[in-house]
Design brief:
408 residues; mainly alpha; Proton glutamate symport protein; 0% strand; globular
């Protein structure tokens, strides 16, 4: 928790210094602004390249391990089937809600500035093919895993990971050493995410300083619209989740919410749904859930049921497209939703892991992935809300499945 607070403070410091530096250039030496922005954006390039560096190993290791461990579903097939059905439905609702809100409110179109001039890593997405249904079908299966890794073809990596994970779980005992090794790799890569996030203040400084130097303080109108629209999305998602929870649990929902008060607060303050996993397990069992169902459904949910994160992924990706003025017709957005439905299943509930998927998905759809640096200064506030929502979604899923099982 202390580390997260220090990182948050460091990002705020980077944000403030970026505003000050950019404002000085914009108001005192405007003739130097283009050159200043061009050079300062290299700090954003550094951060973005480090994030993209870990995309392939993170998705591969987490997704394979998650699917391989689903071999337990054969023993509890009924519970597993209900869990997967809930997770897929909740994922679809969350993604659609994010897509609907960002199209309705259009927070990325509230700015009059030309964000293309802020591009801190244009070379990373230059040469990306225009996304179409034909390209999607042709490139869904990789010719080579190593080629997919080298080019960060996230969907190809997901397809291979799913097939590999299923095959790995089917070989039984002989596959357990491989699962253990990949589990270790996943934890190592996630630790790298923690290290890389400490470069975020530098990236924030570069992105904000360049923006303010070129366009003054108008950039804050963009942030206000973004946070307001996202807050509305979180509120609506909670309304949906709690309504479904009440229909299933009845008045016991309020008892559950009292049990969840502490885990929700911890998730909100640490921006990590994983940080409350032990406490959440304890509270669900005290609520009356069968420990066997909790021990099976909850870990599965942490890999496959991150409702707040999934709503954020469509919201953030399409927001960046709006800021850059990139046209995203409905069929293209639906294809993005399918991609996010798959890639979100490899995301752990750690702080800012959603940003990795957003970066990868933006690059796939010819949206400048470097635009993530623009929203990074305020991402901490979004992460607090989506982490708390992830905890609520998994608690409701586990409680609902437990009730369905107890009826049988």
């Amino acid at each position: 928790m202390k580390s997260n607070n220090k990182l948050f403070i460091a990002i705020i410091i980077g944000l403030v210094l970026g505003v000050v530096a950019g404002a000085v250039v914009f108001y005192q030496t405007p003739e130097d602004a283009p050159a200043f922005a061009k050079n300062i954006k290299l700090l954003g390039t550094l951060f973005i390249r480090m994030v993209q560096m870990i995309i392939a190993p993170l998705v591969f290791s987490t997704l394979v391990v998650g699917i391989a461990k689903m071999g337990d579903i054969k023993m509890v097939g009924r519970v597993g089937g209900k869990a997967i059905g809930w997770f897929l439905t909740a994922s679809l609702v969350s993604l659609l809600l994010g897509m609907t809100l960002v199209n309705w409110l259009e927070p990325g179109k509230t700015t009059q500035i030309d964000i293309r001039s802020l591009e801190p890593a244009g070379d990373l997405v230059a040469g990306t093919q225009s996304f179409s249904l034909e390209n999607f079908v042709v490139h869904i299966v990789p010719k080579s895993l190593f080629e997919a890794f080298a080019t960060n073809e996230i969907l190809q990596i997901v397809v291979f990971s799913i097939m590999f994970g299923i095959a790995l779980s089917s070989v039984g005992e002989i596959g357990k050493p491989v699962i253990k090794v990949l589990d270790i790799i996943a934890h190592v890569v996630l630790k790298m995410v923690t290290y890389i996030m400490w470069v975020a203040p530098v990236g924030v400084f570069g992105a904000v300083a360049g923006a303010v130097a070129l366009h003054g303080l108008d950039i804050w109108k963009l942030y206000a619209g973004y946070l307001g629209a996202f807050a509305l999305g979180i509120v609506l998602l909670w309304v949906v989740l709690l309504t479904v929870g009440y229909l299933i649990l009845g008045k016991r929902l309020f008892v559950l919410l009292k049990r969840l008060a502490s885990p929700l607060l911890i998730a909100f303050s640490t921006t990590s749904s994983e940080a409350v996993f032990p406490k959440l397990t304890e509270e669900l069992e005290r609520f009356g859930c069968d420990p066997k169902i909790v021990s099976f459904t909850l870990p599965l949910g942490y890999s496959f049921n991150l409702d707040g994160s999934m709503m954020y992924m469509t919201f953030a990706s399409l927001f960046i497209a709006q800021v850059y003025g990139i046209d995203m017709p409905l069929e293209k957005q639906l294809l993005m939703l399918i991609v996010l439905m798959l890639t979100s299943k490899g995301v752990a509930g750690v702080p800012r892991a959603s940003l990795i998927v957003v970066v990868a998905t933006c690059a796939m759809f010819d949206i400048p992935a470097a635009g993530i640096a623009l929203i990074l200064p305020i991402d901490h506030f979004c992460d607090m809300a989506r982490s708390m929502t992830n905890v609520l979604g998994n608690a409701l899923a586990t409680s609902a499945i437990d009730k369905w099982e107890n009826k049988n």
